[in-house]
Amino acid sequence: MTVDLSVTAVASAARRRRRPGPVRVSAAIAVAWLAAVVLAVGLAALIAPYDPLDQDISSALQLPSIQHLLGTDALGRDLLSRILYGGQPTLLGVLIAVVVAVGIGSIAGLAGGYVGGAFDRVLSVIADLLMSLPLILVLLAVFAIFPNNVAVAMGLFGLFTSSAIYRIVRGATMTITGELYITAARSTGLSDVQIIFRHLAPRLGGLIRVQASVIGAIALSTVVGLGFLGLDVAPPNPSWGSLVSEGFQYLASNPWLIVPPTVIIVLTILALGVLGDVAQSVPNRVRRQPSAVAGSAASVGVDVAAAADDVLAAAEASPALLTVRDVTVRTTGPAGVTLVEGVSFEVRAGEVVGLVGESGAGKSVTARALTRLDASAVVAGSVVFDGVDLLTLDESELRTVRGKQIAFIGQDPMSALDPLFRIQGQLAEALRTHRRLGRAAAKAEAIELLRAVRIPDAENVAKKYPFEISGGMAQRVAIALALAGEPRLLIADEPTTALDVTVQMEVLGLLKTLQRERGLAMVFVTHDWGVVADVCDRAITMYAGEIVESGRTDDVFALPSHPYTASLRLSDPHLQAVGVQLKSIPGSLPAPADRPSYCRFADRCSLVTDACRAEHPDLIRLPGDGRSSRCIRTLELREEKIHV
Amino acid sequence: MIVFLLKRLGVSALLLFVVSFMTFLLVSLSPGDVAYTLLGAYATPEQLAAVRETLHLDQPVLVQYANWLGAALSGDFGSSLITGQPVMDAVGSRIEPTISLLALTVVVAGAAGLVLGVVGALKGGIAARSVDALGLVGVAVPGFLVGLLLIVVFAVDLRWFPFGGYAPLSQGVGEWVAVLVLPVIALAIGSIGLVAKQVRASMVDAMGSEFVRTFTANGFARGSIVYKHALRTASVPVLAVMGVTLVGLLGGSVLIEQVFGIPGIGGLAVQSTIQKDLPVVQGVAVVYTLIIVVVNLGLDVVFALVNPKVSVR
Amino acid sequence: MSDRPLLEVEDLVIDYRGKRGRTFRAVENVSLAIRQGETLGLVGESGSGKTTIGRAIQGLVAITAGSVRIDGTPVVARSARDRRRLAGDVQTVFQDPFGSLNPARSIGATLEESLIIQEPQLNRRDVARRIAGELDRVGLPASSATRLPREFSGGQRQRIAIARAIVARPRLVICDEAVSALDLSIQAQILNLLMELQVERGMSYLFITHDLSVVQHVADRIAVLQRGRLADELAAGDTDPARWSTYTRKLFDAAPIPDPVLQRERRATFERVLREERAHTAA
Fold first, then answer.
1. A572·C255 Cβ contact <8 A
2. Which class is domain C1-89+175-182+198-238?
3. Per-domain residue ranges for chain C?
4. Does A179 touch chain C (CB under 8 A)?
5. Residues C183, A359: C-beta atoms closer than 8 Å
6. B131 touching A, CB under 8 A?
7. Residue A556 pLDDT > 90, yes or no?
8. What does the pLDDT read at residue A290?
9. How close is the nearest chain C Cα to the Cα of A125, in Å?
10. What would the pLDDT profile of B30-88 be if each residue is shown by its tens digit?
11. How close C228 comes to chain A (CA, Å)?
């Protein structure tokens, strides 16, 4: 299994496994209804009790009875039979519209999206035109060339609607074509046709099915409208639309007449709509941050008051700015997965603490849990900042801490800012949120902030939009935004991973400078040991959701005390001399669901013994500031009695 | 920005040409024509030919179109072949009800759709599902059927609103609104759901963007994040959807005008089509297309204002 | 063993058409060569043109000027048939382990596609046997063939991508940032695998990366690209920075060393170079 430890990924994977029943049920009902209707209409000749044109004036406008299950119309004709036969031109019209719309739209969308260039531009203009043509032209087609010919009218309607399908299919095609496996397929020498059929078309099947349902619903609505206007079939032949029109005419004398055709029409459109809707489920709502109060105490299983007092007392005793104790992060719900557990560490004022590890280790999850940035995560334990346990605060209280006391910068600089607003405006908003500044003062201060992060030509850059600047500069702006509230602690989640190495060096230098100038403390998440050596005062190594080693950076590098850290050094090309084969660690990091109950690194460890598999090891304190290791053989390792 | 708008203007002009040409073609190519309507079924071939010659119906289609186009570009849309009334007058006298109906519908559908969509996005749960259900029902029940239902309940039974017809704005806002309430509701029902659905989807998308997380993480006010930033990001796809719904609204308006007896150009469209009154048909087609063009251009301007990538690059 | 290099690139120029007809020169006058069995590292930051060169050699991108030759024959890649022929000699392992495999097709189907297009004469049993053999060679069980990409980890998917590249026995494999997206512990596994395969099958590698330290471990020679141009060409054992160009030195100095003491020195050097550079441009 891939180990994507981002909270939302795990949470949504869990949700997918428990797909709710009601959605499937409604789809099944819709399909059943449609099948029944199509079958009944198709077999009208066999099952209709009367000929639809059979008049019997003596029994006109009757309510349902044994002889006429749905009653009769003004000319004594059986309504049920007329509905059954009337469905034929109606549903035929729908079929034609759907086939034309989806057929033309899909093929054009596939071709345009894949080929691109001038061909695509021409198609797009044609689609634009088609989408803007007024319905009146359809009316004209019905009347002008082929009177009362539903097929032509709905065919034309399908042609007009194909532009919407074209848009959607083209968009999806372009997205898929941009994916790497299409490039890979081309590199193996597949022809375009082969690629379209084997790799593109199968991915579009679901999308096209959904669009076909939606078009079907709209087409049915349209053909019924045409029938209402008397444009689809020549009387006395029935169509569903014309039946509604007849019912309308006799609304005063027999209100029942309009009901059966209306109900059938509405139910059928609903069924088609439901089918189109099912696959388009939007995530239910914008995620809101849950409060962690009740959850934390319950999960820890300790008396809330006592624990809080202990923790606060401990925090007051030590000089640490941030004290993290026994933090556990799980995804929400009864089937919640534990991502991170038993994490404890301290950050002192002005200190940079690194959370280091590979993907899936839980370092990012931990950092983001400190100010509860992920709504799909439940955080337990305590996070005491400046004497206050953040986990006991509710969302609005936490908002006063974020930005003003604890700020955040993330990995992707280009998406850290709102692309629709200028940089100056966004910085000014951050400033006004945290400090009492008027509009003009905020705008001026925004430029000062840009200067503080060493951006040359700050006035000009302030007026730009985020997409106009480079990645490195965008990250500087993101740092400026984070500093607007003059925070004491900065959480940096892999801030330089997406940058070029020379730019990374500059941005790290900037962070170091700012940290010195402002006495800023940092929790720095990274997977790069070089960055740890460059920036961090202390290093906390995480593996499979827990801390496996910690200590001052100099100490950890000088004497790795856990087989994982030690093995990583042997596989790091930055450290090993050229020509020496890199030692690799076999296997891979276990997913949250696959974590063993014993040492989580045991199955990959070259120093493993039976004792390692007996039980889950605790963190062992070692001499040195905050030094610890979770290996029962750590002393042997440190004394170099054993080597990885 | 200017370049963008000029391009859109170009496409709009092209659209007008295409529509007018297609309409012309369709009517001209049909069997039977206005001569029959004017003279009746017992006209002799000579009489028919004479009428046709007078009306220039015997010339090749392209020539006829060129003539029409030339006149139209200088503002002369000709006269009805049946009544002789200038097309501009015929259309002009009936345009106010249609525009009123469409404008109010757009406002109602847009506002209601926006509010419902945002509420659905923020609250989730039952609210969201209700919004979805409303969208589904709105699309499912054709507007004219809703109109019928509304007439029966509110106009006939409860007598809260007039039965149909139209009251010009110049005669008082109150009556104007009263006569339009039911038809607007009937016409808007379909679109409200679509707009709300799109707003909800776009808002949920926007609220999930990375910059929203960054702003939240740095303590930005919730109100600003939702209503200033996310909503603006969400507005882009919503504008696109509104443009598309408008075309549907035009078609629906024809039916609603029939149901409620509103003397707008919808009735004129159906009537002139049946009678093959070519100049009137052309006039109506051009008017409908102009409405679409103007509204789309307006949406394009708003889009360009909202999206800096269009104006700056 | 012929004298002629397997791959010869001469004065390569590649232009892209940007927005509003503006042309952007991605690669300018780059020449390089790779002999049979040799590994050439191609190093550069984003925008250096290194990926573009890889794509051009694989026939995926049009060449504006200059030549690319395999065994003396110029690479022509205008049609699918040309690309197919080229694919018999050159294959690529792409960077993104999560995107380079079609998520809807089984591993076996993906491997089979690459194999059959080069050796259409194979019958089903031979194909299955070859695929099982390659999967085994890259360290995956034969049962993987029926599974989908999403059931594998990043490192495993990269092994699959390698299997797909070598199944048709190419002579040159382009590794386009093949290990950049992998964790440190997995990266070493994949690098070792690539080196073993090279010894066994005598393949040549064009190793494209932004990481100078990684490439020093695998390449015989290294070409450094800066904004589309060749800034430097080094031999692997050439670890004396004094003989490198300024840009190469800057690139090297910019990568942080996992050693606090050494890194402090390196940062001091870097900051000094940066100050000099700024003073230089200001003047």
1. no
2. alpha beta
3. 1-89+175-182+198-238, 97-169, 239-283
4. yes
5. yes
6. no
7. yes
8. 38
9. 18
10. 666 666 666 776 777 787 777 777 777 777 778 888 888 888 888 788 888 778 888 88
11. 16
Q: Which residues of chain C have pLDDT under 70?
A: 1-2, 19-20, 239, 283
Q: Which one of C17, C177, C217, C227 would you mutate to disrupt binding with A, by most A Cβ within 10 Å of its Cβ?
A: C217
Partners of C114 on chain A (C-beta within 8 Å) are 188
Q: Which residues of B156-179 are buried (b: 16+ CB within 10 A; e: fewer)?
A: eeeeebbebebbeeeeeeeebeeb
A231 three-class SS = coil
Backbone angles phi, psi at A617, to 5 degrees: -75, 145
Closest Cβ opposite residue B251 in set A135, A284, A419? A135
CA distance B191 to B199: 12
CA angle (A60 as vertex; A245, A82 as ends), nearest 5: 50
Return the closest-CA partner of residue A370 out of A321, A411, A297, A413: A321
Report the residue of chain A nearest C56, measured CA to CA.
A187
Task: Give contacts of A229 with chain B, Cβ < 8 Å.
Answer: 254-255, 258, 270
User: In chain A, where are the structural domains located?
Assistant: 22-279, 537-574+582-644
Residue A51 touches partner C, C-beta closer than 8 Å: no
Total Cβ atoms within 10 A of residue A359: 20
When computed from its CA atoms, the radius of gyration of chain C, rounded to whole angstroms, is 20
CB pair distance less than 8 Å for B18 and A129 = yes
Straight-line distance from the first to the last Cα atom of chain C, in angstroms, rounded to the nearest whole number: 54
**Residues 507-536, chain A: which have Cβ within 8 Å of C?**
508-509, 527-534
Q: Is C241 on the interface with A (CB under 8 A)?
A: no
Domain boundaries, chain B: 2-73, 95-306
* 3-state class (DSSP) for residue A1: coil
**Using the beta-carbon criterion (under 8 Å), do B14 and A258 form an inter-chain contact?**
no
The Cα of C214 is separated from the nearest Cα of chain A by a number of Å equal to: 5
Residue with tokens 């509710």: A394
Query: The domain at A22-279 falls in which architecture?
Result: Orthogonal Bundle (1.10)
The predicted structure's pLDDT at residue B32: 63
Q: The pTM is what?
A: 0.85
Sheet with C172-176, strands from edge to edge, namely C90-93, C172-176, C204-209, C39-43, C221-226, C229-235
Q: Which two tokens stand for residue A584?
A: 């690799």
In the stretch 586-615 of chain A, residues with CB closer than 8 A to chain C read: 586, 588-589
Within 8 A of A468 by CB-CB distance, chain C residues are: none
A:B CB pairs within 8 Å: 223
CATH classification number, B95-306, choose in 1.10.3720.10, 3.40.50.300, 1.20.1260.10, 1.20.1250.20 = 1.10.3720.10
Tokens representing residue C67 in the block: 């030549």
What residues of chain C lie within 8 A of the CB of A1, using their CB?
151, 153
Residue of A nearest to B243 (CA): A132
Query: Judging by beta carbons within 10 Å of its beta carbon (0-12, 13-18, 19+), is residue A75 exposed, middle or buried?
Result: middle
The predicted pLDDT at position A360 comes to 85
- For residue C139, the Cα-to-chain-centroid distance in whole angstroms is 21
C245-272 pLDDT, tens digit per residue, is: 888 888 888 889 899 999 999 999 888 8
Instruction: Encode pLDDT of A17-32 as tens digits.
Output: 444 556 678 888 889 9
Q: In terms of C-beta density within 10 A (0-12 exposed, 13-18 middle, 19 or more buried), how is residue A563 classed?
A: buried
Separation CA A481–CA A465 (nearest Å): 14
Name the DSSP class of B86.
Answer: B
Contact by Cβ (8 Å): C178, C50: no
- Kindly list the partner chains of chain C, i.e. chains with 3 or more CB atom pairs below 8 Å: A
Q: What is the pLDDT of residues A457-487, one digit of tens each?
A: 999 999 999 999 999 999 999 999 999 999 9
